[in-house]
Design brief:
Strand order of the largest sheet: 3-2-5-6
Shape: rod-shaped
Helix content: 25-40%
Number of strands: 7
Strand content: 25-35%
Oligomer: single chain
Length: 159
């Protein structure tokens, strides 16, 4: 009678089928597919600090794994350059739209790599014109006006 208590399970082909099915089902979790999503953010010049959705993520060039598609906020900061603010659209590919995403994420026994590359050019900070930070002409003009006002007060009060 063996391991099976029901009639019909004693046949050898059925036992072989069930044992093979058990092996396949036990290995299935290791063969399931997935999608590996990555953003590559570059800048010219390199070395800019990257904030993705207000989270620091490294310096350019940087590769960032991501889980969801849609609009993402990117900020690039580098000393001597204008801070760059951008919104990037990471559109979902056709194989990530329901119900196809179930097949690619769960059933397909391969890894799909979805890499998105975004490049930005940073603008240098504008140079200050000569004397733009010098306030001495303003101070000198203020002294002249003060002295003139005092002289007018002295002349009006004395007569």
């Amino acid at each position: 009678m063996g391991l099976f208590l029901f009639h019909g399970f004693e046949s050898r082909p059925l036992r072989q089928f069930l044992s093979r099915a058990a092996v396949v089902l036990s290995l299935a979790p290791f063969a399931l597919g997935c999608v590996e999503r990555r953003l590559l953010i570059r800048s010219e010049p390199e070395g800019a600090k990257v904030l993705l959705d207000n989270e620091p993520r490294g310096v350019t060039p940087v590769e960032i794994p991501f889980s969801y598609y849609g609009a993402r906020d990117v900020v690039l900061e580098k000393e001597g350059f204008v801070t760059l603010h951008a919104v990037i659209d990471v559109d979902e590919p056709i194989y990530q739209i329901f119900p196809a995403d179930f097949v690619t994420d769960v059933l397909l026994p391969v890894t799909i790599r979805d890499a998105r590359d975004f490049s930005f050019r940073l603008e240098p900070l504008p140079e200050r014109p000569m004397g733009a930070g010098d306030v001495s002409p303003v101070i000198e003009r203020a002294r002249e006006l003060r002295d003139r006002a005092r002289a007018e007060d002295d002349g009006a009060g004395g007569g």
